[in-house]
Amino acid sequence: MKLNFTLFIIIFSTLSGYSQNINMYLGTFTDGDSEGIYKLQFDTIHGVLSNTKLIAQAESPSFLAFSPDRNYLYATCRENDGIISAFKINNNEDLELINSVDSHGGSPCHVAVNNEGTKLVVSNYGGGTMALFNINSDGSLTEALQVFKQSTDEEVSHAHSAQFIDHYLFVADLGRNSVFKYQKSDVGDGYKLKTESIVNMQPKAGPRHFTVTKDHKYFYIINELNSTVTVAKNTNNGFKLIEHISTLDDDFKGESYCADIHLSPDEQFLYGSNRGENSIVVFKRHHVTGKLKKIQNISTEGDWPRNFTIDPTGNFLLVGNRRTNNISIFSINKKTGKLKYSNSFDVPSPVCLLF
Fold first, then answer.
1. Which tens digits make up the pLDDT trace of 123-172?
2. Is there a contact between 223 and 281 (Cβ–Cβ < 8 Å)?
3. How far apart are CA 175 and CA 226, in angstroms?
4. Cβ pair 296, 338 in contact under 8 A
5. In what order do the strands lie in the sheet with 269-275?
6. Residues 19-52, buried b or exposed e (16+ Cβ, 10 A)?
7. Which residues are paired to 36 by β-bridges?
8. How far is Cα 131 from Cα 278, in angstroms, rounded to an integer?
9. Which of 19, 175, 227, 270 could lock 158 by a disulfide, CB 3.0 to 4.6 Å apart?
10. Contact 309, 262 (CB under 8 A)
11. Are 300 and 311 in contact (CB under 8 A)?
12. How far is C-alpha 132 from the geometric centre of its chain's CA atoms?
């Protein structure tokens, strides 16, 4: 009887068009109609967004990150030349501000939390610094544990993103044209510089974001200034450069600047966003060599695609078009990796999409 009832529910759900709605959080720039951080509902069956709701007023919360247990959310904000705000996610999934701390650099643009939920790192594009914070048990942030100044007399740093990987901290620095590697310090609770560049970048490449395979063997670095992806292999003897490959269509001749990069959940495909060409590039990834083959450049159906994300089912890719105030949704062919445009949803100045 129980089996028959379960079967009935499955059949009824299918026939009635039953859908599962999940939350998506949206970071924005507030130089237009936006007022801060928004929450939306995403239908994982039909691939549509709905129910835009302002859940926290903030000044240009341009990048968001969850704690590992998803009880807390952290945002880079441009108030007072740069702060990091910690929020508690309440039972109704609205946000409650816990505290805010100085980011120690202008224009904070990226934030990441370690797997233990004990440390947070912020990249300050304008200030050319990276700051490390401890996270308290209640989700609040301490004052900065360390502030790293990466500028030299010859080169101005523009730290753009950072990630905790194993016992290391990697930082993409657009200004220094490098991906820095820091290791845990022998003394104290912080980090110290291990190497200033894991691989040699092309001149004026401008590393912005990077993504890493689950085994931490291959690094894929998207370069804003010359519209390329740099592939590097993590070996016992350090990093080995595999290749640099263009993100643009062979026929595109205008100016374009890369933004975000993500692997598919099965790591068979790699996606990147191009601002100018206004496209998502799709690469087929060789699982043994790590090399890439470009298989598609598809219009984002909007202007200036900054951040994008793949939904938890792996069936849809959502991209925020900042200048046209819309999120475009694409279905993903899991066999080929290619995208197909589905629909668009209007939102104010989208710059960070977080499931």
1. 999 989 999 999 999 999 999 999 999 999 999 999 999 999 999 999 99
2. no
3. 13
4. yes
5. 257-263, 269-275, 279-285, 292-299
6. eeeebbbbbbbbeeebebbbbbebbbeebbbeee
7. 57
8. 32
9. 175
10. yes
11. no
12. 18
Query: Strand 95-102 relative to strand 108-113: parallel, antiparallel, unpaired?
Result: unpaired
Phi and psi at 11, nearest 5°, equal -65, -45
Percent of the chain with pLDDT over 90: 92
Residue in the structure block whose two tokens are 């304008």? 126
End-to-end CA distance of the chain: 37
DSSP codes of every residue in 219-240: EEEEETTTTEEEEEEEETTEEE
How many CB atoms neighbour CB 329 within 10 A? 23
Is residue 83 a contact partner of residue 102, using CB atoms and an 8 Å limit? yes
Which residue type sits at 182?
A: Y
Residue type, 120: L
Tokens for 17? 């068009």
Phi first, then psi: what are they for 56, rounded to 5°? -160, 125
Q: What is the pLDDT of residues 269-292, one digit of tens each?
A: 999 999 999 999 999 999 999 999
Strands of the 83-89 sheet, one edge to the other:
63-66, 72-77, 83-89, 95-102
Rounded-to-integer distance, Cα 89 and Cα 74, Å: 10
Residues pairing with 246 in the sheet: 228
Q: What is this structure's pTM?
A: 0.94
Q: Quick one: how many helices (H) and strands (E) in the chain?
A: 1, 28
Q: Name residue, tokens 């100018």.
A: 276
Cβ neighbour number for residue 130 with a 10 Å cutoff: 30
Residue 247, classed as helix, strand or coil, is coil
Radius of gyration of the chain (CA): 20
At 144, the amino acid letter reads: A
Contacts of 218 (CB under 8 A, 6+ apart): 212, 231, 232, 233, 234, 242, 290
3-state secondary structure of 14: helix
Residue 277: Cβ within 10 Å count = 23
Closest to 147 in 3D by CA, of 103, 106, 179, 82: 103
User: With contact defined as beta carbons under 8 Å apart, do 261 and 218 qualify?
Assistant: no
